[in-house]
Design a protein that fits this description.
The structure holds 2 protein chains of 2 kinds.
Chain A: E1 4-7, E2 10-13, E3 18-25, E4 31-37, E5 44-50, E6 53-57, E7 64-70, E8 73-79, E9 87-94, E10 107-108, E11 112-116
Parallel strand pairs in A: 2-11
Antiparallel strand pairs in A: 1-3, 3-8, 4-5, 4-9, 5-6, 7-8, 9-10, 9-11
Chain B: E1 3-5, E2 10-14, E3 19-21, E4 24-26, E5 33-39, E6 46-52, E7 59-61, E8 64-69, E9 74-79, E10 88-95, E11 101-103, E12 107-112
Parallel strand pairs in B: 2-12
Antiparallel strand pairs in B: 1-4, 3-9, 5-6, 5-10, 7-8, 8-9, 10-11, 10-12
Classes of the chains: A mainly beta, B mainly beta.
Chain lengths: 117, 113
């Protein structure tokens, strides 16, 4: 089973709202990722969690706050977003290669289409 | 720095034609990984293949085949006898010892009936 699930599928929020995106995988992967994708562009990495610890933050504004409650779940908390934050938010997971070891493919969820009004 | 170039922004073919999607990468690392992903209109990125830098063997999977050539830093993807369901954006991507997956800009493939 190579499935990553994301909820909700669509989200419309105002600039003063607080909302959360959720991601779940049951493949035993210990690396999880958040990406942002604008229309007609490739995904851009936002955050990486490795063994439930934040390992990469690509200088993302603090209005995006990730959380990894356990090895299967990944959340992205949203607060005071701007209209330019409207995008497709993709979650992914992969096996974790330690140090300079093997690297593995990432499996992506279907994404959450976020519109900020 | 890592860079992936997909020079073909859009390709349009008629069903049953063969089509090749080009991917050229730049890296200073001796160990790296290359990937192809498919993104249909629904939005989900679908993993197609992973290739390691030390394995230049070409691969065939059904109608899909990949040609990896380190001498030209290319990792091209061919779809044989294309079908309408192959219509999607295809991304080539590169990964080194870190966890940052570098994507190309993508190629929009449209297969017309």
């Amino acid at each position: 089973d190579t499935e990553v699930t994301q909820t909700p599928k669509h989200l419309v929020m105002g600039m003063t709202n607080k909302k959360s995106l959720k991601c779940e995988q049951h493949m035993g992967h210990r690396a999880m990722y958040w990406y942002k994708q604008k229309a007609k562009k490739p995904p851009e990495l936002m955050f990486v969690y490795s063994y439930e610890k934040l390992s990469i933050n690509e200088s993302v504004p603090s209005r995006f706050s990730p959380e990894c409650p356990n090895s299967s779940l990944l959340n992205l908390h949203l607060h005071a977003l701007q209209p330019e934050d409207s995008a497709l938010y993709l979650c992914a997971s992969s096996q974790e290669g330690r140090g300079a070891g093997v690297r593995y493919e990432q499996y992506f969820g279907p994404g959450t289409r976020l519109t900020v009004t | 720095a890592q860079k992936v170039t997909q020079a073909q922004t859009e390709i349009s073919v008629v069903e049953k034609e063969d089509v090749t999607l080009d991917c050229v990468y730049e890296t200073r690392d001796t160990t790296y990984y290359l990937f192809w992903y498919k993104q249909p209109p629904s939005g989900e990125l679908v993993f197609l293949i992973r290739r390691n830098s030390f394995d230049e063997q070409n691969e065939i999977s059904g109608r899909y085949s990949w040609n990896f050539q380190k001498s030209t830093s290319s990792f091209n993807f061919t779809i044989t006898a294309s079908q309408v369901v192959d219509s999607a954006v295809y991304f080539c991507a590169h990964l080194t010892s870190g966890s940052r997956l570098t994507f190309g800009e993508g190629t929009q493939l449209t297969v017309n009936p």
